[in-house]
Write a structure and sequence with these properties.
Blueprint lengths: L14 H10 L11 H14 L4 E5 L2 H12 L4 E6 L3 H4 L4 H6 L2 E5 L8 H4 L13 E8 L10 H13 L3 E6 L2 H8 L14 E4 L10 E5 L8 H7 L8 H11 L3 H20 L6 E2 L7 E5 L2 H7 L6 E4 L4 E5 L6 H15 L1
Parallel strand pairs: 2-3, 2-4, 4-5, 5-6
Antiparallel strand pairs: 1-7, 6-7, 8-9, 9-11, 10-11
Helix pairs in contact: 1-10, 2-10, 8-11, 11-13, 12-13
């Protein structure tokens, strides 16, 4: 597969990250997060998310999301999220299984929750026969490629906190949101009222590993036990931390995200001029959603891999990555024109 627009997970590893792994592969370091790389990385996270942030490295995005939710809930609680949310559609039921919580979903056409959609679900408090609402979970960027503003996040956080609830953020593409908004990470997380988030890098140039970032100190008090019991504790943690150092210290995370977003924007500009193509979502990150004729879709996917997002409507998703080139998109657009003719 030469190029793919199927997922930003299909891209490789940025050379700077590979070099960081090689550099970390020397001498000896203490294990289980007691190494110097982990300590340095924790300092970097606090600079980006605020002095109270506590970071815990885990194996993958599913683990990061599930452990975040475990830190915020008890099994009798309920988690409210968009119907399209990754924790609802693409975690194979892991959040329900490992938290024991009820998942309550909301039909949000652009993938974004707002207080008017959530308020009707905030009921049954203190009634022993009902699951107790405890977490509002949002994705930044959403699964539909849209981005929450800090003001939108703050309104959800305020609503959650008014009801003694938490706001969780799935931040697997948080870098792309920051690139789109032109804002520091702290501005759209800690200062906006987010309590806990998963912060990923594998979709943006890292090899493996994710981070759970707890923004309220009391949430971190027993988290190390949750991580260990959930089988998400690395022994050689330095190899995750070293990647985050390469990713965060010099701004690689933002550089990569800006490029991916720019390529998606370029793709959208080219596509919207074509007859028979309808862009279905605002292009605010590195994703383009569109509907194209079924015949064209079947021919195009043979040469340029991508996923059909909605089998019923024919909506597709095209993802750009840190290593997507303008020439890749030009070739794609040319073949799309041929299939449409």
């Amino acid at each position: 597969m030469k190029t793919s627009f199927g997922s930003d997970n299909h891209s490789g590893v940025h050379p700077s990250v590979f070099k960081a792994l090689e550099d970390a592969n020397r001498d000896y370091q203490l294990s289980y997060g007691e190494d110097e790389y982990s300590s340095r990385a924790e300092d970097v996270f606090r600079k980006l998310f605020g002095k109270d942030a506590r970071v815990f490295f885990v194996f993958n995005g599913t683990g990061a999301n599930v452990l975040c939710l475990q830190a915020l809930t008890m099994p009798y609680h309920a988690i409210i999220c968009a119907e399209t949310a990754h924790i609802n559609q693409d975690e194979c039921g892991a959040p329900e299984r490992f938290t024991g919580c009820k998942m309550i979903t909301v039909d949000a056409r652009d993938g974004k929750l707002d207080p008017s959609l959530v308020k009707p679900l905030l009921k049954g408090f203190s009634f022993q026969h009902h699951s107790q609402p405890k977490v509002i979970s949002i994705s930044q960027v959403t699964e539909l490629g849209t981005v929450y503003t800090p003001e939108e996040i703050r309104r959800l956080a305020d609503l959650a906190h008014e009801h003694n609830m938490y706001l969780h953020m799935d931040g697997s593409r948080l870098a792309n949101a920051a690139a789109y908004l032109g804002l520091p990470l702290e501005e759209m997380t800690t200062r906006a009222g987010v309590d806990a988030l998963s912060f990923g890098g594998t979709k943006n140039g890292m090899l493996m590993g994710e981070a759970v970032v707890l923004l309220r100190p009391h949430l971190a008090e027993n988290f190390k036990y949750i991580r260990k019991q959930s089988m998400q504790l690395f022994s050689k943690s330095r190899f995750v931390a070293a990647q985050y150092l390469a990713y965060l210290e010099g701004g690689l995370w933002l550089e990569n995200a800006r490029h991916a977003n720019k390529m998606a924007g370029y793709m959208a500009e080219c596509i919207k001029k074509l007859p028979g193509v309808t862009i279905t979502q605002q292009v605010e990150s590195n994703a383009v959603f569109a509907i194209i004729p079924e015949k064209a879709r079947k021919k195009l996917v043979e040469k340029h891999f991508f996923y059909t997002w909605n089998e019923h409507t024919g909506e597709v998703r095209w993802m750009c990555s840190f290593n997507t080139l303008k020439s890749h998109i030009d070739s794609f657009i040319n073949d799309l024109k041929i299939t449409l003719s």
